[in-house]
């Protein structure tokens, strides 16, 4: 593995010459990019002020059975990730502004409905509305940030991955602040948290109605066919989806394999909160330096490959330590190593994958391809999580499940597209 990393980190031809110093990124962004990055921050604050507390609300306040709570949460995920490709197609046809405004209206309505819902059918309707709202506005914002990042790069400002890294860091900051806000509001009640979440989206709606251009220069609309058949024949893009899906499957182990490991080591899942906070803070504070380092040394393919190998190494750390059977603080160290390596891999993979989409998408289809990246990889996670759950429950030797999990991202490095369209970072 060390030899693989050595080849990955070798500078590309021409990178040995002295580079100009990096400009402070925020002050050189266009007003539209600043709006979109702040939007991602607000989206996640509003979302995570409510959703982390939904399962407990459904089980205690409403009294739903465990299987019903699981069904509701699954329907929310499906209505969001599963319909990203639908939202992306609508964006290509009708534009970014209508998708963002319409999505905000639906999210506001969904949160208000959820705060008032007492019956199962009402809760399901609310979460479907909340999920489909994101299937509209998230592909709109993500695809336009990726497109604007390419323009920013072509204007000589630096690598597009730096813009997308800032976008990721803003989203992670929102994911960190949102639960803190929601936890404070739950001291009143769940309805108050829902009202606060809706209030955040009211502000986003007002900001975009005022500041979002009706027509974004360079953004073309596609009115001919759905483009789905063409997408399904695009082997290079589907290979990217599979590699990205393997990362998401690995990330999903924060909620599946990691809790079991933490409980084994400490007898409680309480340390999970600290490990999640560690992951969030790493992204908030280290994402931009990591992206700057990577943009000087790696093209998009190598960045994703290095990230996937870091993720694999995270699983390998736990696998190596499991036979020792450490408990207590020492037992938490391998889990912390997994979280750190997974997060470092995430910092390389996510900006690179988003930056790659504009080079692979057909003309006028960037919304569709951005949505498909989430939907296809989300399907991989759905199928892979079922297999992982079975793997963890098979009673295998303790290191074996973690070794198998390590092989998945390591093997998908070979799937990453090569040749034209690998988008060397400039």
UniProtKB/TrEMBL annotation:
The UniProt record lists the keyword Transmembrane helix: yes
Segments forming domain Major facilitator superfamily (MFS) profile: 32-424
Subcellular compartments: Cell membrane
PROSITE patterns per UniProt: MFS
GO MF entry, a single one: transmembrane transporter activity
Major subcellular site: membrane
Topology within the bilayer: Multi-pass membrane protein
Transmembrane segments: 32-55, 61-78, 99-116, 122-142, 163-184, 190-211, 237-258, 270-291, 303-323, 335-357, 366-387, 399-416
Keyword annotations from UniProtKB, A to Z: Cell membrane, Membrane, Transmembrane, Transmembrane helix, Transport
Domain of life from the UniProt record: Bacteria
Entries under PANTHER family matching the protein: MULTIDRUG RESISTANCE PROTEIN MDTH (PTHR23517:SF2), RESISTANCE PROTEIN MDTM, PUTATIVE-RELATED-RELATED (PTHR23517)
Protein name as it appears in the record: MFS transporter
């Amino acid at each position: 593995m060390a030899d693989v990393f050595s080849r990955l980190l070798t500078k590309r031809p021409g990178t040995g010459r002295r580079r100009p110093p990096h400009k402070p990124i925020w002050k050189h962004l266009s007003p539209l990019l600043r709006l979109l990055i702040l939007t991602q921050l607000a989206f996640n604050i509003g979302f995570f002020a409510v959703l982390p507390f939904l399962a407990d609300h459904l089980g205690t306040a409403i009294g739903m059975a465990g299987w019903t709570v699981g069904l509701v949460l699954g329907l929310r995920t499906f209505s969001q990730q599963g319909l990203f490709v639908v939202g992306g197609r609508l964006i290509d046809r009708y534009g970014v502004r209508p998708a963002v405004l319409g999505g905000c209206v639906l999210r506001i309505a969904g949160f208000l409905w959820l705060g008032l819902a007492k019956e199962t059918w009402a809760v399901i309707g609310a979460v479907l509305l909340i999920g489909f709202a994101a299937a509209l506005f998230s592909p709109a914002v993500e695809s336009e940030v990726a497109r604007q990042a390419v323009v920013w790069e072509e204007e000589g400002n630096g690598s597009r991955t730096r813009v997308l890294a800032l976008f990721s860091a803003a989203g992670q900051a929102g994911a960190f602040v949102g639960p803190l806000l929601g936890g404070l509001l739950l001291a009143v009640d769940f309805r108050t948290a829902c009202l606060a979440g809706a209030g955040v989206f009211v502000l986003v709606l007002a900001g975009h109605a005022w500041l979002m251009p009706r027509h974004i220069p360079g953004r073309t609309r596609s009115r001919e066919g759905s483009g789905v058949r063409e997408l399904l024949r695009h082997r290079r893009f589907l290979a990217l989806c599979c590699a990205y899906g393997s990362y998401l499957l690995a990330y999903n182990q924060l909620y599946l394999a990691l809790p079991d490991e933490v409980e084994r080591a400490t007898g409680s899942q309480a340390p999970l909160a600290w490990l999640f906070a560690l992951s969030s803070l790493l992204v908030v504070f280290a994402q931009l330096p990591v992206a700057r380092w990577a943009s000087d040394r790696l093209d998009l393919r190598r960045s994703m490959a290095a990230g996937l190998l870091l993720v694999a190494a995270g699983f390998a750390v736990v696998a190596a330590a499991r036979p020792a059977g450490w408990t207590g603080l020492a037992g938490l160290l391998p889990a912390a190593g997994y979280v750190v390596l997974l997060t470092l891999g995430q910092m390389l993979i996510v900006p690179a994958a988003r930056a790659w989409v504009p080079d692979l998408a057909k003309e006028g289809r960037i919304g569709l391809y951005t949505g498909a990246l989430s939907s296809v990889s989300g399907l991989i996670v759905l199928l892979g999580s079922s297999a992982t759950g079975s793997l963890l429950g098979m009673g295998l030797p303790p290191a074996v499940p973690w070794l198998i999990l390590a092989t998945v991202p390591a093997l998908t490095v070979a799937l990453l597209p090569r040749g034209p369209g690998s988008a060397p970072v400039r």
